[in-house]
Amino acid sequence: MLYKIWRYSHFYLTVSSSLFLLLAAITGAILAFKPIQEKLQPFYIHQANEVVLSELIDTLSNKYDEVLDLEVDNNYFVKATVFGLEESGQFYINPFDGNKLADIPKPNTFFESITNFHRSLFLKTTGRIFVGITSFLLFLIAITGLLLAIKRQGSFVKFCSKIIKDGSIQYNHVTLGRLLLIPIIIIAFTGTYLSMEKLSLLPNTKVSTITNKTQNNKAIPLSEFAIFKKTSLKDITKLEFPFSTDEEDYFTLSLKDKELKINQKTGFIVQETHYPFVQILSVLSFNLHTGNGSILWSFILLISSLGILYFMYSGAMISYYRLRSKIKNKFTAQQAEYIILIGSENGSTKQLGKVLQQALIQANQKVFLDDLNNYQTYSKIKHLLILTSTYGQGEPPSNANLFLKKLQQTKIVHPFDCHIIGFGSFSYPKFCEFAKEIHRQTLLQPNINIATETPLLIHNQNYIQFKNWVDTWAKSLKLNISIPKELSTKKQKETSFKIIDKTNIKDQYDETFTLTLSQTKRKKFAAGDLLSIIPPDETTERLYSTGKNANGDLLLSIKKHTYGVCSNYLNQLKPNDTLKAIIQKNKDFHLPKKADSVTLIANGTGIAPFLGMIYEKTKAEMTLYWGTRTKISATLYKSLILEAQQKGILQHFDIAFSKEVHPYNYVQDLLVRDENIIVKKLKNGDIFMLCGSIAMRDAVFIQLEKTCIKNHLQPFEVYKNNGQILTDCY
Ligand SMILES: Cc1cc2nc3c(=O)[nH]c(=O)nc-3n(C[C@H](O)[C@H](O)[C@H](O)COP(=O)(O)O)c2cc1C
To answer: Where is each Flavodoxin-like domain found (predicted)?
Structure first.
């Protein structure tokens, strides 16, 4: 409940202040340059930090006929107003010898007008009110954002520790938010304070004045005044000299926190006026808000202002993803035979649920889509499809936290089938834990027929895996539905390929073949990209991982399925035939450019992308572990692998044969044999790339996990999070 309040507050506060916030952030970013530009004056080396006031007074009294005042600005540059034979007027002086350094520059009109706009939008008091409110809203936005980020991460400790990189815009939002939280709170707080001051909303605190009784009447030289001797220039803001020699005319010395009246003959402090706290805070707020006097702080303010602009963009995108996935239903919960229930925090899982809902509606099926939290009794239900992500420490997303309780309490009128699909990320130790928990609990429900022994678990919202599941599920129910080839609405163009080579190999188990394709019109691609092929008279695409030979031709490795439409279609193609297909970029599975060593692990036709990578120009040491069934099947790629070995690109290559009498039946067995090397590679931050079946991936993961534990390495998740483990498995 609280979470919802924070989320809505964060959203509405940002929306309501967005225009002013945008203007304030842009002008704020520009104004952050002002102190930087001021501080970069050519005479910056003459700053007054270490000079004692009495020395400068002495120097100036000797050099000029009359001194009216001295000012030390926030950059510790010293201005003096003097009369003398050579120089008169107000100018910057060298605090060491009193010489004139520069005239006071005219105010920069550009910065002045931007400052006015930033403070009041050129609308005087009304503008100031808007600006003040915006600052306060920014303060609230920062606080609600902090609470949301803590909730997102699971706890305050987790918020402070490493945030798992998942490539999402939320990751950027939270990571940047954590970095800029304190400066933004300071900007917001000081902005609010300054606006309140200008609008006279601060309490009227009294100035405390102490008048001292004269204790000695002895006149002493100026340079002997105790107060001048103990005060350094860096502590003062202004010193006004007495107007006349009349003893009632005093030196007025303004320090950071008080003002002193000093007898011009005796140096005795006649009166001390302590500034009220409100005023000291005003000066502090002003300096913190403007970066006055500090290049470093100005730079932080600049980054923070730009950060606010980025947050507005990333926040808008996050909200867009959430709102885009608002649920609309054509049928009611009691009319529908297909119920899709979603557990989703940021909308991506919901988006997939909607795609499935649309496909079912198009196939004239009665479907109802809802949040998992709204689970109830459905009178016509035949199929329940649960799609859920996992958050926190394997916890439900916020629209699913009541589901398990409701599952226990809700009456089931008649039995129905149920499929559970989990969406999560390998980066988290409890991968898809909530989906697994739902699976465990639904298994205990007598009237729910769980279709599979384990739920389908999908890493990083892999759409292709989801689409494959939908296709298989629809086929099993003889439903004529198909979801789009990809989620993005961008339509890609088909490219023509010419078959230039085809090789088949058959053992007693399988038939596998390779196709070498040249592009009629060369389009850039890299090994690891996907080739989308729609067989003739079909609407459903099939995706194949691509390799690339030394000539830059595209390589496909395909297992022939007896009743497989696409594999049979491709198998009947002959050299010189043409194939139309679309290359889909798969950037997450390209050979990393900077790596000392890359270990490629594949089984079956999963070797395809690696057949390209072993020809790429790379400084990395390359190892390929491949699992296949028989020695005969291994001959298919022999020449390609040999070529890469002869060229010196592929340094190590090893095969595991699952159907031969052989010491190593599976790729994970090779990993056990080479454990010491694997340990070194994991420690060294080297890359591991896996392509092939999900069963192979899971077995390799289990083995690597064991290796980590046995050798006292970091938990395996750490290596996954580092981006050391790349997968493309289906
Ligand atoms: C803070 C946070 C915690 C997460 N915790 C887990 C987790 O414990 N296990 C897991 O498999 N995925 C975890 N994930 C990944 C999400 O489940 C995954 O990104 C999912 O695709 C998000 O789907 P949604 O946008 O529908 O919420 C987490 C993500 C975030 C941002």
So the answer is: 338-478
